[in-house]
């Protein structure tokens, strides 16, 4: 289908983009990779009168470590996240996540900022960023503010971003020694959204006890879900098969799936349990290397 009529604006700087968002209010939308927004416009599920294309703003796409954080620019393409040696070697959970998003064509355009800002519970980065306790940097008229990812997802397709704010950066705390993470996703076919997926990140002490655990769930509720009870259960324990199995059961209890074309709710709950088990097992392997 053809989208409704819209005006196209191409700011050259972030302040210019923010003032255009202010000027046009709720009728304006940021255009990033366009991989969610354009299909929604074609289906007439979104009808922005103004598209503010941020693709030509310099210095919004980068991946670098800077002191305490891995910093990823909001306009960084999924293909660049997937291809980053730094991400692959030190943040394998993010590499696992980027490589199972859609297909290579989509990943060449789609951005990590758009993935989070869209607020779709089926999008993959949300759960991973919850497991990593990341922060989102929102830039608006009053400058930058930091939003913990835990507070970022408000409800389905709704985030804590104000309409005149741009997601400019994602900050992931640099993991402590003996940390590891993994993302496991079940999709009906390559390129599909998750039927369910689980992100798990753990840190072990020198005696192999868990000092920190993060677990995020994809597409089993109105937002990405942090499985806090499962995380708390793991802390202070040695992560053997029995402990992991119990945490997986707790994560399953924290999921809130509904039945849809990808399957009944009970099936998805069972998936959360198994995918949590697999993600935690891989996370422990990686933390132990
Ligand atoms: C065939 C197909 C399969 C897909 N499969 C998956 C999948 O398996 N997993 C997955 O996670 N995703 C999947 N996606 C979605 C894809 O990852 C999208 O690209 C992503 O959801 C949005 O990123 P984008 O850069 O394309 O954003 P856009 O489509 O440009 O924008 C999406 C929304 O976010 C807003 N926005 C974008 N960037 C910013 C910003 N920096 N600041 C503030 N607001 C912003 C826009 O205004 C818009 O409302 C798929 C998409 C397609 C077309």
Task: Describe the protein's topology.
Layout: E1 7-9, H1 14-24, E2 28-31, H2 37-42, E3 50-53, E4 63-66, E5 69-73, H3 78-83, H4 85-90, H5 92-99, H6 104-109, H7 112-117, H8 125-131, E6 135-140, E7 143-148, H9 149-152, E8 153-155, E9 158-159, E10 166-173, E11 179-187, E12 194-204, E13 210-218, E14 225-226, H10 228-234, H11 241-254, H12 265-287
Parallel strand pairs: 1-3, 2-3
Antiparallel strand pairs: 4-5, 5-10, 6-7, 6-10, 8-9, 11-12, 12-13, 13-14
Helix pairs in contact: 10-11, 11-12
The chain binds flavin-adenine dinucleotide.
Looking at this protein, list some descriptive labels.
289 residues, 14 strands, Uridine Diphospho-n-acetylenolpyruvylglucosamine Reductase, domain 2, Enolase-like, domain 1, four-stranded antiparallel β-sheet, binds flavin-adenine dinucleotide, Uridine Diphospho-n-acetylenolpyruvylglucosamine Reductase, domain 3, alpha+beta, 3 domains, five-stranded antiparallel β-sheet
CATH-scheme architecture of the largest domain:
2-Layer Sandwich
Major sheet description: 5 strands, antiparallel
Shape: globular
> What ligands does this structure carry?
flavin-adenine dinucleotide
CATH overall fold name of the largest domain: Uridine Diphospho-n-acetylenolpyruvylglucosamine Reductase, domain 3
Could you walk me through the main structural features you see in this protein, from its secondary elements to its overall organization?
Helices cover 36% and strands 26% of the residues. It has 289 residues and is of the alpha+beta class. It has 3 domains: 7-53, Uridine Diphospho-n-acetylenolpyruvylglucosamine Reductase, domain 2 (2-Layer Sandwich); 63-173, Uridine Diphospho-n-acetylenolpyruvylglucosamine Reductase, domain 3, CATH 3.30.465.10; 179-284, Enolase-like, domain 1. It has a 5-stranded antiparallel β-sheet with strand order 4-5-10-6-7. β6 and β7 (143-148) form a beta hairpin. The longest helix is centred in the last third of the chain and has 23 residues, at 265-287. The termini are far apart. The model has no long low-confidence stretch (mean pLDDT 97). The chain binds flavin-adenine dinucleotide. Flavin-adenine dinucleotide is lined by residues 29-37, 39, 74, 101-102, 106, 110-111, 113-115, 117-118, 120, 123-124, 161, 166-167, 191, 193.
């Amino acid at each position: 289908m053809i989208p409704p009529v819209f005006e196209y604006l191409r700011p050259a700087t972030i302040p210019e983009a923010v003032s255009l968002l202010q000027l046009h209010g709720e009728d304006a939308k940021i255009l990033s990779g366009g991989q969610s927004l354009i299909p929604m416009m074609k289906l007439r599920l979104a009808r922005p009168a103004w598209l503010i294309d941020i693709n030509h703003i310099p210095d919004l796409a980068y991946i670098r470590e800077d002191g305490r954080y891995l910093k990823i620019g909001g306009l960084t393409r999924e293909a660049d996240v997937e291809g980053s040696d730094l991400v692959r070697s030190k943040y394998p959970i993010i590499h696992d996540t980027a490589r199972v998003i859609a297909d290579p064509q989509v990943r060449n355009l789609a951005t990590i900022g758009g993935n989070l800002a869209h607020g779709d519970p089926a999008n993959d980065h949300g759960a991973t960023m919850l497991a990593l306790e990341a922060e989102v940097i929102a830039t608006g008229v009053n400058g930058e503010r930091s939003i913990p990812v835990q507070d970022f997802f408000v409800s389905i397709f709704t985030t804590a971003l104000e309409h005149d704010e741009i997601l400019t950066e994602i900050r992931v705390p640099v993991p402590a020694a003996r940390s590891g993470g993994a993302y496991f996703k079940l999709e009906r076919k390559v390129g599909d959204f998750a039927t369910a997926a689980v992100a798990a990140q753990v840190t072990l002490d020198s005696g192999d006890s868990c000092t920190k655990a993060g677990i995020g769930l994809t597409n089993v509720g109105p937002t990405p879900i942090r499985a806090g009870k499962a995380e708390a259960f793991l802390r202070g324990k040695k992560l053997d098969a029995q402990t992991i199995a119990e945490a997986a059961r707790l994560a399953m209890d924290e999921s809130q799936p509904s039945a849809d074309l990808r399957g009944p709710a009970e099936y998805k709950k069972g998936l959360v349990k198994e995918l949590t088990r697999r993600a935690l097992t891989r996370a422990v392997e990686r933390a132990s290397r």
